[in-house]
Amino acid sequence: MTGNIKNLAVLGSTGSIGVSTLAVAKELRGVRIFGLSGHAKLERLMEQVKEHSPQVAVCTSQSTPTSEGPSRIGEFGSDWNGRILWGSEGLVELATAPEVDIVVAAIVGQAGLESTLAATQAGKRVALANKEALVIAGDLVTKAAKDSGAELVPIDSEHSAIWQAAASGRREEIRRVILTASGGPFRNFDQQQLAAVTVSQALAHPIWDMGPKITVDSATMLNKTLEMIEAKWLFGLSPEQIEVVIHPQSIVHSMVEFVDGSVMAQLSPPDMKLPIQYALTYPARMPGPAPKMNWDSLFRLEFIPPNPLQRAALALGRQVCEVGGTSGAVLNAANEVAVQAFMDGKLSFLEIVPSCREILEQHQTIPNPTYEQLLAADCWARQEMNQWILA
Ligand code: NAD
Ligand code: MG
Q: How far apart are the first and last CA of the chain?
């Protein structure tokens, strides 16, 4: 750290969370963009480099500067004198660079695991959006944080809410946490309507504007399933301590119930800038660009128990929380492949959850897996899901 200025590495800066992070950082005193990374949207990465002049930019879609990209990388601008790094090696180099204080882990899916784990092992503050890293390897990541002294702080709005609400009591005084779920665009659809869901319908979330994978996950409810597992690892909860309630307005971002029955909630308009900012400024709170609540007009907040279809998706989260081992890696990988297949028109919306369940059931869980065993389980689940789709 240089004085009071904190150096940020934003991994996945070209995505939805990455872009919001840069918007927050621009308005905050005391943070500087040290490094950025982008995968497919090179144009956006180049614009970000021009705007934020980081010391390092990582292009992850190629591992060497020999293929098509480099000439375009030249367009970063002649007056930029930072370094360009490549591939997953470059990403790990940025995530562990001694100059970096805070790593914003905002890559989507298993692709974010290696760099999230590396940042944690290097003892950084890891502002975690990449929930999949905890779903796959929660045990390894949380153990690494303990060993290195890394601070694992949530960006996911529900977990940020729990983190903030939990500050009202002691850890051992928490009875349970209640994760809120918007219910996605198909909250009121029946089985027949769900069977006919199209990709564009699934990508039109009623409240949140997010990347495509998490938007589909929100529609299937598997996002909440992954968040149950994320909550287990972040807060050391047992499966029975994690409840889910549908809250269509997405104003209450989650709640903590203490042993005396008191329930603490965190409220704010649905906008990721607030949880991102809190992960950067914690333990301080600062004025920032997140929208504020408007109490001048009438609004209502609803809380609805999940329906049987939603419960079926959530049951997978409970199962993974109970079984542990390689099961999270399997659920995550099966889901990643299923979501891509749905977006490619190869799998129907209603097949996503049952296919994940089937693959999870076929898997022989390995307890206390190594990193390599987790990657092997991920690989196995991807193959199984690809076969399921072809069958
Ligand atoms: P996104 O698709 O908008 O962005 C993903 C980012 O990851 C991009 O920068 C992309 O370049 C990068 N990326 C993609 N594939 C990669 C690969 N193979 N290697 C390296 N980088 C790669 O996704 P998002 O909505 O910003 O979500 C990012 C993470 O944050 C996800 O884990 C998601 O679950 C979580 N999250 C997002 C939101 C939200 O509001 N968007 C809210 C809570 C949690
Ligand atoms: Mg969330």
A: 54
